[in-house]
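Ticket #4471: structure output looks truncated?

Reporter: J.K.
Steps to reproduce: submitted the chain below (438 residues) through the standard prediction queue, then opened the result file.
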Amino acid sequence: MNSPRSHLAKDQTIGVVGLGYVGLPLLLAYASGGYQALGFDIDPSKIDSLAAGRTYIKHIPDSQVASAKSSGKLDATTDFSRVSECDAIILCVPTPLDEHFEPDLSYVIATIESIVPHLRKGQTVSLESTTYPGTTDEELVTRIEAAGFQVGTDIHVVYSPEREDPGNPEFAATNIPKVVGGITPACLAAGVALYASVFEQVVPVSSCKVAELTKLLENIYRAVNIGLVNELKIAADRMGIDIWEVIQAASTKPFGFKPFYPGPGLGGHCIPIDPFYLTWKAREYGVHTRFIELAGEINRAMPDYVIHRTMEALNSRGKPVKGSRILLLGLAYKADVDDMRESPTFALLDGFKRLGAEVAYHDPHVPVVGPTREHMEWAGQRSMPWSRENLAAQDCIVISTHHKSFDLTELAQVADLIIDTRNAMAQTPTNPGQVIKA
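Returned output as attached by the reporter:
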């Protein structure tokens, strides 16, 4: 799009609401791009960290925050009245599921209701939170217009799904193509200008609903394929076949195949949650999304499969789960990050504890369990230190996340029984029967 608004003027202020794994990298991107970047969050500890030039997300270095702060381009606050200072406001707040696996838009609604009293004409409002098609129209536009603004003239409203991959060194926030949809053509032009100012590539689409469904498709694609390979893992195990070897062999095909890998379940804020936003919305239209729901059932059942395999392995050594010392390696949902959102390790901790095991975890990226909505009982639990003595004292060690920092050679030297859910031990010499894949 080559309109005069293809980039924002450098004197503009960009506000980012929600300074987590999505919002903070975006805020820093605008600050490093020369824009005044103003962050908003309800957590004062995050604001204090940024004011001191410190990070609170492991894969974002202190130096990046300190540089943005010292440049005078970075500021952060809990005061939502300062929304009036912003030329654009980008919402990056959570969209979890409730206990019935239905969308919980409480964060989005609370945020938009907090900023509406402070909006002014000429601003652009963008929602980045993953959600079902129609959310931007139904929740943002209705509230903004109820406040007396005309969307497309007074205020420009867009939807642009986040595509962050925390800990992936190949993709920072700004080199991932940015999909943008607008309520009106004028809204779309404003959204393109907003994101083209810092993103290498912007992908305009015809509506906010298209952009909303684009994000869901991306995550449903992964969820369904992971569900498929998780189901195949169980079948292959019963047949005495190593599914990891099968995946490696299939990956040699130069076309028509993309490898997905099994695990102990799905984690992170996107893959376990986002598909159910479409499932819920599709019911309004009389559509039963069977693939999505089946994949969800399979993926949610994987922790139980790992627990069952662990029970079998302990029983083969004459040990019941009750009273056994079980150490889980990795609390973060993916390798080499500190993000524990929706981590399947929590389901493993819960399951082994219910069975009477003495269960602990080790994760250098998560030294202590912080508060979570679903697993408050584990808040304050500390990571067991890595030592030969601690490893040797366990009846069973379960690798639930494969962090590069794990010394797998030392683990093989001292551990009696290893349950490997990630094929982490594949290149490490071990004794016969020492490692059980699950």
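Triage note (M.O.): checked the attachment and the full token line is present. The chain has 13 helices and 13 strands.
Status: closed, working as intended.
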